[in-house]
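[Meeting: bench + compute handoff]

Bench side (C.D.) handed over the final construct sequence. Compute side (W.E.) agreed to return the predicted structure before the next meeting so the bench team could plan truncations. Sequence as handed over:
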Amino acid sequence: MSMITERPVSNSAGQPPVRTAAEASTVTSRDIRAVVAAYVTLTKPRIVELLLVTTVPAMMLADGGMPSLWLVAVVLVGGSLAAGAASVINCYIDRDIDQLMRRTKRRPLPAHTVSPRSALIFGLVLAAVSVVLMAVFTNLLAAGLTLAAIVYYDVVYTLWLKRTTTANTFWGGACGAAPVLIGWAAVTGTLAPAAWALFAVVFFWQMPHFYPLAMKYKDDYARAGIPMLPVVASARRVNAEIIIFAWLTVLTSLAVWPLGMSAIYGVPALVVGAIFLVEAHKLARRVVRGQAVKPMRLFHWSTTYLTILFAAVALDALI
């Protein structure tokens, strides 16, 4: 793994200055912290957090209450490592385009804080540890789904779909929804209809969640040659898909209700779903009227929507 070092300033005699033990210790500590921070950044912690928001409630629903804390801890650690591994390998594969985009050019690889080889080794080690952890302490179905999610995200999505088709976000949605299935499988060793319904919610949700972000950074994606839908399609086409998938998200979330859920889940699902749809239609209306689009408003609300929805799943399972 590459280290960040400081170049000492030469003294008047042209020789490097002699550092005291305290100064050397301070520099070393700062360098170590910088390196650790760079490797943590490669794992994209915010994405990991969002994935875990869906995993634990799915486990609780599968268990009909609160699973053992040991199992929850194993799945959280294993899931975090798996998501981090997928992100690190994604950064390794995308290092050529990341340096072309303003949003990503400060990531550790384009910034040369971490070497590509070190990043790849780091990602593969995280992936191996995550799969082994799930296989040893949960079951083979959960471990297999974990491995499949990593491979799909990095090989199918990052290497192929992302660079070749405008439907990349749609087909890539399976990766983001996989933690629901992994959490459920870790508890029961099977996949029930409710698990697939929650999977579908997260799958459909990713279009109205990510398209606004792609709208904001479409010039970046165009510069990198990535055919994200907002780059190659009109704003009206993008917003039509946002509305369609927002409706599919909400309708699917309501379809979960009769699968063993009560009003504790159903009422919040109705309320936050209605707000989600209003925000999606507001974005489309601003586009039609030629007003400032403000796509990040829907992006941030979509995160809030998913968090509240799965909190309702957890509460319903407990009560």
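W.E. noted at the follow-up: The longest helix spans residues 263-289. C.D. will use this when planning the next construct.
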